[in-house]
Amino acid sequence: MSNPKKILVYVDGTEESVIASQYAICLASFFGAELFALYVVNTRAIEELLKAKIFLKDEQVEYEHDMESDAQKYLNHVDKLATKKGLTVSTQSRKGNIHKEIIDAIKNHDIDLLVLGELSRIKSRRDELYDEREHAMRSVPCSVLIVKDEDKVWDMYDSLA
């Protein structure tokens, strides 16, 4: 595999995705690669909550709006992390099914490497079937890097000029 020219980090608001973003920033700096950050508002999950009558329609709209605000907040955070290290990042928020939106972004931007935060421990077979990040990891047409070891990533990010 040659050096990645385009790197996509998936951001979902978890600490693991922030750590993955820092690692992706380090990789982009090291390889001189373009960096993209994607946040997906999981409308599939919202629709399931509505169908299960956990939400009323009005609550669904409000919750989706809150999730869109969260998306912008986390993408802005990644942008600030990149800017601190002299890099630019193209950020995008999408709505829909997480793994499908990740695959579309990879195809649309001709991404070489997808960077994900550490996957949560699978507690049941159902969790394994419904983990959208894991589904994406298995379905994307590019290499995938799973970021672990938060302390080492912080050290690497902090040492980046």
> For the terminal residues, how far apart are their CA atoms?
26 Å
CATH architecture: 3-Layer(aba) Sandwich
Fraction of residues in helix: 55-70%
Any idea how many domains?
Answer: 1
Uncertain segments: 124-129
In short:
This protein has 161 residues and is of the alpha/beta class.
Care to describe what's here?
- Mean pLDDT is 86; it is low at 124-129.
- A 5-stranded parallel beta sheet has the order 3-2-1-4-5, sandwiched between helices.
- It is built from 7 helices and 5 strands, in the order βαβααβαβααβα.
- It is globular and about 50 Å long.
- It has 161 residues and is α/β, with parallel strands linked by helices.
Core attributes:
single chain; alpha/beta; Rossmann fold; 7 helices; 19% strand; globular
Topology record:
Blueprint: E1 6-10, H1 15-31, E2 34-42, H2 43-51, H3 57-84, E3 90-96, H4 98-109, E4 113-117, H5 125-130, H6 132-139, E5 143-147, H7 150-159
Parallel strand pairs: 1-2, 1-4, 2-3, 4-5
Helix pairs in contact: 1-3, 1-7, 2-3, 4-6
